[in-house]
Amino acid sequence: MKYKAMIVDDEIKLQEVLKIKLNKYCPNIEVVASANNVSEAYVKIKTTEIDILFLDISMPGETGFDLLKKIDSIYFEIIFVTGFSEYAIQALKVSAVDYLLKPLNTEDLKMAVDRAIGRISSKMELERYKVLKHNLVSTSAKDRRIAIPGSNAYEFVTISEIIRCEGWDKYTRIYLVNTEVILSSYNIGIFKDLLEPYGFYTCHKSHIINTDKIKRYLKEGSVVLKDDSQVPVSRRKKDEFLDKFIRKILK
Q1: CA triplet 148, 166, 153: central angle to 5 degrees?
Q2: How far is CA 201 from the centre of its chain?
Q3: Surface-to-core class of residue 144, CB atoms within 10 Å of its CB (0-12 exposed, 13-18 middle, 19+ buried)
Q4: pLDDT tens for residues 35-71?
Q5: Rounded to two decimals, what is the model's pTM?
Q6: How far apart, in whole angstroms, are the C-alpha atoms of residue 172 and residue 167?
Q7: C-beta separation of 48 from 6 below 8 A
């Protein structure tokens, strides 16, 4: 499993050294972004999904702590990388995984990464237990929650919140009622097996729809859902679809 990381440090050389060490000694870490200052880092954090943030503290203008104050919800693990040991107490106050001093020690880096991954895994397991507990007391099947596998994490959503799924290359886009779209690294066949027992219908090889969200059927051969998205019904599935969801209602 790959974990996505971002490096924030005003020293370009340090960024490169850290990337090389991670690539060599922590192959399960993928550096997906880097920034030289707080402003740049803040923009990238808002638009990039990460698991671990390697953060310098002392930078020109604003510090690493200033960056954390700007972020409403810190969902990732933090490893501080700095040349000033006097910041250690402050680092602990923001629940950082670890505090690494420059120049970087390889063994310290590996241990910090292992601790970060351990904390990420623990949070994931805790969320799974919450989902299990929720599902055990749910009175309606569609009130149950499922885990949608992404590239490096699971998104937990209530089944009734899913409007449709769309196959995209080897991935699947899941469209929710709140207009959010989740991109899963699993193909659409996985979601066919997962969702069909809950009233979802595979109307096309690339489309699965929540039949509770059908708004209208267009005679040209497509379905309009409650979010006004239009999904095709394949020729092969047209008669079956009409029998199940249109003619049955008209009888």
Answers
A1: 20
A2: 25
A3: middle
A4: 999 999 999 998 888 999 999 988 889 988 899 889 8
A5: 0.56
A6: 5
A7: yes
